[in-house]
Specification:
14 helices; binds zinc ion; globular; six-stranded mixed β-sheet; alpha/beta
Length: 401
């Protein structure tokens, strides 16, 4: 380490990233051009976002559905007491802008499984999962494979943590790492009624800022390495053991039954279609492209109707299962929990073809999957792109709002 002499430090105007530039392989421009989607703005997400902003990542999108609570304040460097009750996404975005005013930052306030269109995954060069449950990780993993984006997962467990990097179909993926015990827990939740599922999700994971700092920093560093094509966690992970410091790297193998290692279905960017385009218009195009059409599949499961088991009252909903509120799940007449009917596909002759993606409850800028026999194509509703980027962008001047 050499300190500049007093004379030198007076002439040298130090640019924000001067200390990066003296790293031989570092390319600040690569970071400035990068688009990173951070899913989750809790303890881990705060650390990841803080690091990415300080590193000079140019474009960031932050997705989370929660509002800031007092219990977040012990683990979230970007939140203040006065932020209580505000959305985590927007508050984190504004704090990131204070750290790095040149940042282009977007927020998606909503449930990851219900409200994050696959277009956001397509937008990103790298996806970071700062999540605390398997269900969300499974969804992020699936979405990353479908859109062919690498992702960095982080997990916390008191003094311990884990960082993993995936780039399926090439490398083993998150689903490949799941053992019987993991699947048992996932299936246990999935077999619950919808109301019980929501109660299942309510418990928080015990975490501290110290482990979150370690893991969040490693995730951000994995992003930097991936953007520079350096060796990084690729179908593998690093287990941080915080008690005795017996931390170790781990390499995964392709799961025997993992469905995510075939060549993914190609996705076409369709600027003339958006989430308000009727599906029959889209199906006409898809039918021409594929030489026929069996159905259009959705990227997520939608609730079509809710029926009361007692009075048989049926309500038509069209809403992603994870966007349903507990109050919407009970019958308005007899307060019984209703039974949902799901839809994840529309066949050519279905009357649902008259509806648009947004009328069916799909988020904006999503991808629809058209299929004809063994052939399929993804259709990115890219007509939504410009509006989505515009309405989600957070500006520093909005701080006083
Ligand atoms: Zn896999
Ligand atoms: Zn009823």
């Amino acid at each position: 380490m050499t300190e500049p002499t007093p004379g030198q430090s007076m002439v040298l105007k130090e640019d924000r990233f001067t200390r990066h530039q003296s790293i031989k392989w570092w390319d600040q421009q690569k970071l400035a051009n990068a688009r990173v989607l951070v899913i989750g703005a809790g303890a881990l997400g705060n650390e990841v976002i803080k690091n990415l902003a300080l590193l000079g990542i140019g474009h960031l999108a932050i997705a989370d559905m929660d509002k800031i609570e007092a219990s977040n304040l012990s683990r979230s460097v970007l939140f203040r007491e006065s932020d209580e009750g505000h959305p985590k996404t927007r508050t984190a975005a504004m704090a990131a802008l204070e750290l790095y005013p040149t940042l282009d930052v977007h927020v998606i306030e909503g449930n990851v499984l219900a409200d994050l269109g696959l277009g956001w995954f397509r937008w990103a060069n790298v996806v970071v999962g700062a999540l605390d449950n398997r269900e969300a990780r499974l969804y992020v993993n699936q979405s990353c494979v479908q859109t062919q984006r690498p992702w960095v997962d982080g997990g916390l467990d008191v003094l311990n943590g884990i960082v993993r990097g995936f780039d399926a179909p090439r490398t083993p993926c998150y689903e490949c790492t799941m053992g019987n015990a993991d699947w048992q827990l996932v299936n246990q939740r999935r077999s619950c009624s919808l109301l019980a599922r929501q109660a299942f999700d309510a418990g928080g994971v015990p975490t501290t800022i110290t482990t979150a700092s370690v893991i969040g920093a490693m995730q951000a560093q994995e992003v930097v390495k991936r953007l520079h094509n350096l060796e990084c966690l690729d179908g593998g992970g690093f287990v941080y053991e915080g008690l005795r410091h017996t931390s170790y790297p781990i390499q995964y193998t392709h799961g025997k039954n993992c469905p995510w290692h075939e060549q993914p279905v190609a996705i076409e960017v369709m600027e003339q279609f958006n989430s308000d385009t009727p599906l029959h218009t889209i199906s006409q195009w898809a039918s021409q492209k594929l030489g026929g059409l069996d159905a259009i599949d959705f990227s997520r499961e939608l609730v079509h109707t809710l029926t009361c088991p007692n009075c048989k009252n049926t309500r038509t909903m069209f809403i992603p299962v994870d966007r349903l509120k507990p109050s919407e799940l009970v019958c308005e007449n007899c307060q019984q929990e209703c039974i949902p009917a799901f839809v994840h596909s529309v066949e050519l002759n279905s009357e649902l073809m008259q509806m648009s993606a947004s009328q069916l409850g799909l988020p904006a800028w999503d991808v629809l999957w058209a299929r004809n026999g063994m052939n399929g194509i993804g259709i990115e509703l890219a007509g939504d792109l410009e509006t989505q980027l515009k309405t989600s962008r957070v500006h520093a001047v909005n701080r006083e709002d």
